[in-house]
Amino acid sequence: MQFGIFTVGDVTPDPTTGRAPGEHERIKAMLAIAQKAEEVGLDVFATGEHHNPPFVPSSPTTMLGYVAARTENLILSTSTTLITTNDPVKIAEDFAMLQHVADGRVDLMMGRGNTGPVYPWFGKDIRDGIDLAIENYALLRRLWDEDVVTWKGKFRTPLQSFTSTPRPLDGVAPFVWHGSIRSPEIAEQAAYYGDGFFHNNIFWPASHTRQMVNLYRERYAHYGHGTPEQAIVGLGGQVFMRRNSQDAVREFRPYFDNAPVYGHGPSLEEFTSQTPLTVGSPQQVIERTLSFRDYAGDYQRQLFLLDHAGLPLKTVLEQLDLLGEEVVPVLRKEFANLRPAGVPDAPTHRARVAAAATAREEERA
């Protein structure tokens, strides 16, 4: 199982001081957080993609290329790649290039985003969101899987005998997760291709997460990729820790109360009782995270959101120390002990290259 962090890259004033970082400072902080993730032994760093204030990560591959040069083991991912408004040709080429730069330590998460105006900014219509996601991804798969592509669709100009460059590293494209919190069509798409399904698991109750994950698992089996238990599932999570739970609640409360995404709404206590947000001690985070298995089944990737709502970099780095030293080692052991035989490991480039070689040998035999 893989453990890591994801960032949405918000530039939010610290409610305890009123100070907001500049864009440059926030970008540099995200890079420091990624390098710290490797230092403390995490597996994955993922960044979102946004094209509007107060967010800064408009160019994920630029950021991840920098991180690739300064890490050795960290898997570099997106927590959203906008399959609806990005050109599939550019996605194919950008992420294949990143594969080569990072020696295969790359995957990505397709999503439609949560900012409606991004569609006209890139010449698209939000009413076509689902159709764009389906058509663009179908083209992207062909661009990675086929050396020469001739294609015609509804939303972009046709391609005639086109080859995207560079080709995927070792002939194996980056692994794709399809991220969604509310759209069954995206769970269906992930299942159809045998890709991974990532449920953000931050704002929604367990019953909703169970429903979406179970739909994906059932349809994964329907399309012949394996049993429902063999489907590749990832979950998000959101935590704030101090060794004393009362200290965590007291320190995090002003950030929660003023956060752009959930501030001035339900109380911290209401939100933590109804969603996976966990504010407390490392042991409480361990127990809460292990409970995700009760409604999502055995899964392959767990990502945590740590750097948001104006939390200062020093505090985020302290959170990473707790995560890497006290939480993740226990979660690794406990999840491994609970995992039944036959449940696949999280996908890696090396494992997928080996699987592709085995498949070719079986075809020849």
Please state how the strands of the largest beta sheet are arranged side by side.
3-2-1-13-10-9-8-5-4
Report the C-alpha radius of gyration, rounded.
20 Å
Q: What percent of residues adopt helix (DSSP H or I)?
A: 40-55%
Tally the beta strands: 13
- Assign an overall shape: globular
Structural class: alpha/beta
Biggest beta sheet attributes: 9 strands, parallel
Short synopsis of the structure:
This protein has twelve helices and 13 strands. With 365 residues, it is of the alpha/beta class.
Give structural notes.
Helices cover 46% and strands 14% of the residues. With 365 residues, it is of the alpha/beta class. Strands 3-2-1-13-10-9-8-5-4 form a nine-stranded parallel β-sheet, covered by helices on one side. Helix 2 packs parallel to helix 3 (88-101) and helix 6 packs parallel to helix 7. It is globular, with a radius of gyration of 20 Å. 43% of the residues are buried.
Which keywords apply here?
alpha/beta; monooxygenase; LLM class flavin-dependent oxidoreductase; oxidoreductase; LLM_FMN-dep_put; Luciferase-like_dom
Question: What's the helix and strand layout?
Answer:
Elements: E1 2-7, H1 23-39, E2 44-47, H2 60-69, E3 75-78, E4 81-82, H3 88-101, E5 107-111, H4 118-121, H5 129-145, E6 149-151, E7 159-162, E8 175-179, H6 184-193, E9 196-199, H7 206-222, E10 233-235, E11 239-241, H8 245-258, H9 268-274, E12 278-280, H10 282-296, E13 301-305, H11 313-338, H12 349-364
Parallel strand pairs: 1-2, 1-13, 2-3, 4-5, 5-8, 8-9, 9-10, 10-13, 11-12
Antiparallel strand pairs: 6-7
